């Protein structure tokens, strides 16, 4: 036996298995390359992990549910443990959901975990997306990953819609009726689309099996592939990071994937799973036995989708039910307008990175994150978008708001109609002002230090507050950002003296660029000269007064 073979033979079992795998898969090379990948440490980077872990929980519980759920619309007479429903005619899908809830061991808990995990998954995606939006991590080279993430969000919305339609209870059928109405509102091809999707006239007999295939196979399959691509991109591009000493556009400062990050991530997975399970065990969600089986001729108040689609419901509820007839065709604007507004509203977020880079002309790579206050216009746009989302969300629950607050539903509907146009611009202006105020405060802090709260009385009776100088790390964080200039208008004439007119598109771009980076949108950060003038005693005239106070203090 050769030396190496003998050494291998004596090696621990784990090492031998690893050697075996390396001979076939080359895992040592992959490990050397990726196991030392560095992850920066910041709480906001855990939002992506919450998306990932809740998605895993959804898949695990979803597979368990498939063992007992019957995606069939065949009519059966219920005869199970839930006595109030005994003898009621219902679809097999609904009956099997009742069985999962009352007769399958752990079934109700798993159903609840699946549903709660779905709610948390979508919430985590929204927050994760907004953290990328506000910090500008969608900029080059991460635009494709932004679009992959956005596709995950869009698919998640439909996956949730189809999921809560599966039990075929009165609420879920109402959701499908909503979808049917929207399809029918599409001009010219609406009826074909509806017939095609439902396999005949709504609700038909194919609806549940069809959305089942979409829910457990097609959409999750695409989502898993996209999540893998998303994470490969995160590895490939490396992580963005906050500005700080030693952190540049070319490095990443943080802990290595193995062993630090993997240990943290493993623990965090169980924490997420545990919290979802705890909520699911304690708080009821979607008690389908209360609603009864779906019947196309019935609907109740309080029929809302899950929170993430409530804004779409809101669009439909607040849109007046106008119909117009064009060329003999009736357009149901009450549904058609929301049908167009929904992708436009959501799509704005998807295309935002491209819009911003076109406006600002910034085509460079960025790996250092922006502090939201240093990009007031972007931050204000994000806040305005969120405010519109929340107002529409409230519109989706107008009946609940009316009954809980004892208000007229018409009053609420009008408040939402007006609010959705008025509130976002107001939020925009206020957010921008807050950002500029914060920039001013940062400037003060850099130049004069932090307010210490210690008030000193000078010998001649004047009171002054003492300021504590910032550490080098803090100074760096507050001054590391760039302050880009708006685009310059091209010369009115070319080099031959021929007038070079600026196109209307270009004029719009110049105006928007000024709005983004003009004097109105940023407070000049302190220059090294200003800082030195205050701290080294070479004060300029502007600082003479402050200097005098400082001198008096000493
Ligand atoms: C299934 C859903 C998703 C999962 C599992 C997921 C997971 C992750 C993880 C683990 C990271 C690295 C850690 C972090 O920065 O938080 C990440 C980064 C990223 N995600 Fe997601 N994400 C999802 C959805 C989204 C959505 C909806 C968007 C935006 C529309 C998005 C955009 C991004 C971007 C741009 C990065 C790179 C940022 C950077 O390097 O700092 N992701 N994602
Ligand atoms: C992002 C992915 C997913 C989301 C957002 C989601 C969401 C939902 C929701 C909200 C329900 C209704 C639960 C209830 O009865 O209260 C549901 C039902 C169901 N889901 Fe999912 N799901 C996802 C993925 C999956 C996967 C991957 C599977 C299986 C492989 C699955 C299988 C099922 C089954 C069988 C039901 C019907 C059982 C029941 O409602 O009790 N789901 N889903």
From TrEMBL:
Pfam families per UniProt: Cytochrom_B_N_2 (PF13631)
Transmembrane portions of the chain: 43-69, 113-134, 146-166, 178-199, 211-236, 268-294, 328-355, 376-395, 407-431
Record's bilayer topology term: Multi-pass membrane protein
Region annotation (Disordered) ranges: 519-554
GO CC annotation terms, alphabetical: plasma membrane
Keyword field contains Heme: yes
Protein location: Cell membrane
InterPro entries membership: Cyt_b/b6_N (IPR005797), Cytb/b6-like_sf (IPR027387), Di-haem_cyt_TM (IPR016174)
Designated name of the protein: Cytochrome bc1 complex cytochrome b subunit
Species the sequence originates in: Streptomyces coryli
């Amino acid at each position: 036996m050769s030396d190496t073979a003998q050494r291998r033979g004596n090696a621990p079992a784990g090492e031998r298995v690893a050697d075996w795998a390396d001979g076939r898969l080359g895992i040592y090379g992959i490990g050397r390359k990726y196991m030392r990948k560095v992850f920066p440490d910041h709480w906001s980077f855990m939002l992506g992990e919450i998306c990932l872990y809740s998605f895993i929980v959804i898949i695990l519980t979803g597979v368990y549910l498939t063992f007992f759920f019957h995606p069939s619309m065949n009519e059966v007479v219920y005869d199970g443990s839930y006595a109030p429903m005994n003898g009621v005619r219902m679809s097999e899908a609904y009956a099997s959901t009742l069985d999962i809830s009352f007769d399958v061991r752990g079934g109700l808990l798993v159903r609840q975990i699946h549903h709660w995990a779905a709610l948390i998954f979508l919430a985590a995606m929204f927050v994760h997306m907004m953290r990328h939006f506000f910090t500008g991590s969608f900029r080059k080279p991460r635009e494709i990953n932004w679009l992959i993430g956005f596709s995950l969000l869009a698919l998640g919305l439909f996956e949730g819609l189809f999921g809560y339609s599966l039990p075929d209870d009165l609420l879920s059928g109402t959701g499908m009726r909503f979808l049917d109405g929207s399809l029918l509102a599409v001009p010219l091809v609406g009826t074909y689309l509806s017939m095609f999707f439902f396999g005949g006239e709504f609700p038909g007999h194919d609806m549940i099996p069809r959305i089942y295939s979409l829910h457990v196979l097609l959409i999750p399959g695409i989502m898993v592939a996209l999540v893998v691509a998303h994470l490969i991109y995160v590895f490939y591009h490396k992580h963005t990071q906050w500005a700080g000493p030693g952190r540049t556009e070319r490095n990443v400062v943080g802990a290595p994937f193995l062993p630090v990050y993997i240990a943290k991530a493993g623990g965090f997975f169980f924490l997420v799973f545990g919290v979802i399970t705890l909520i699911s065990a304690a708080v009821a969600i979607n008690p389908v036995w209360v609603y009864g089986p779906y019947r196309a001729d019935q609907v109740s108040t309080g029929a809302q989708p899950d929170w993430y689609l409530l804004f779409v419901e809101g669009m439909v509820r607040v849109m007046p039910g106008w119909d117009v007839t064009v060329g003999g065709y009736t357009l149901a604007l009450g549904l058609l307008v929301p049908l167009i507004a929904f992708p436009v509203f959501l799509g704005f977020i998807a295309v935002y990175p491209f819009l911003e880079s076109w406006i600002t002309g910034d085509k460079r790579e960025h790996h250092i994150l922006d502090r939201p206050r240093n990009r007031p216009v972007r931050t204000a746009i994000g806040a305005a978008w969120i405010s519109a989302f929340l107002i529409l969300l409230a519109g989706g629950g107008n009946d609940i708001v009316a009954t809980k607050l004892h208000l007229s539903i018409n009053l609420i509907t009008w408040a939402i109609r007006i609010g959705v146009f008025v509130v976002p611009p107001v939020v925009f202006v206020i957010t921008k002002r807050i950002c500029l105020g914060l920039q001013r405060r940062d400037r003060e802090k850099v130049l004069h230090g932090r307010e210490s709260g210690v008030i000193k009385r000078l010998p001649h009776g004047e009171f002054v507050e003492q300021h504590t100088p910032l550490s080098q790390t803090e100074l760096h964080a507050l001054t590391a950002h760039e302050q880009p200039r708006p685009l310059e208008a091209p010369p009115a004439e070319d080099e031959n003296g021929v007038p070079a007119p600026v196109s209307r598109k270009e004029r719009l771009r110049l105006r928007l660029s000024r709005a983004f980076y003009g004097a109105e949108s940023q407070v000049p950060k302190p220059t090294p000269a200003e800082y030195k003038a205050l701290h080294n005693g070479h004060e300029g005239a502007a600082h003479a007064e402050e200097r005098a106070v400082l001198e008096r203090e000493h």
